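Notes from the 1:1 (GR / supervisor)

We went over the backlog. Supervisor wanted to see one worked example end to end before approving the batch request, so GR pasted a single chain during the call. The sequence is below; no edits were made to it. Supervisor asked that the structure be written out right there so they could see what the output format looks like.
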Amino acid sequence: MLIKNYQFHYSLIGTLDKPLILFLHGFMSKIDEFDEPIKLLFDKFSYLTLDLPGHGKTQVLGGNDYYTMVNTAHALINLLDELKISECFLVGYSMGGRLALYLTLHFPERFLKVVLESASPGLPTEAERLERIKIDTQIGRKLTRSIEKSDFATFLSNWYNQPIFGYIKNHPEYDRMVESRLQNNPEELDKSLRFMGTGCQPSLWEKLPNNKIPLLLLAGEYDEKFISINIEIAKLCKFAQLKIISNAGHNIHFENTLAFVENVKEFLSTAS
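Structure output shown during the call:
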C-alpha cells in the first residue's frame, strides 16, 4: 500500500471482527518474523504484519529522513487509518519494540495493550547516543561491504555471537532464520540502522511515568542487558509488568515460542 513516502509491503491475516494484533519485527528481519507465534495464536486474533522501512519489500520513496522513527511511526498510523483500524493490540520485538514504545507514548488512543519483547526506551544522554551512533556507523559500513551473499552470511554469524542472543545458534531452526535474514538488502539495512538505530531515536525514558497503556515487558533469561533495562522501565511505568522468559536470550519468540505465545495470549485476553 502506498502511504505518502512509503510503499508498504504488509499482510492482513484473518477478519477484523476479531481483535487485531499489529506485529513489528526486529532489525534485519522482515514480515515473516512472527509466523510461528501466529500459527499458535491463530484462532484468537487477526494479525497485521509488515516489512519496516529498510527491510524486506517495503520501499521508502522519500529521502533518508523517512527511515527515522518519528516518520515511520506516523506512516504506520496512516496505514492503520487506510485499513480502517481505529485501535488494536501492538507487539514489537527489539527494534520493533523501540518503535512500538514510541507509538504507545505518542498515539496512546490507538493501542489497547502493548507487548514489548527485548525492547528499550533508547539512550538517556546525548553522550551515550553519540557513542552509539559511532558504533552503528561502523556496523553499517560492514553491512554495505557485504556485497556477496557469503559476506552477508558472515556478518550475520558475527552478529549472533553477541552475548544478548545467548544460545540462539544452537536452535534447530537457526539456519532457516538466517536464510530469511539474507533476503534483506544490506544497503537498506544500513539506512535503517543509521536513521532508526538506538543512537538516533528520541529518548523515551522521561515519558514512561506518564504512560497509561498496559505494557507487558518480556526479556529472556540469558539477556542480562535487557533484563536490566526492563527492570528500570517497570520501575518508572506504573502500568508495566515484567516477565523473564526461561530458555531464551534476546529473540524470545524464536527461541521459546510456546512461552512467548502463552504470555502474550494471557496478557491480551485478561481484562485491564
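Supervisor's comment: The chain has a mean pLDDT of 96.
Batch request approved.
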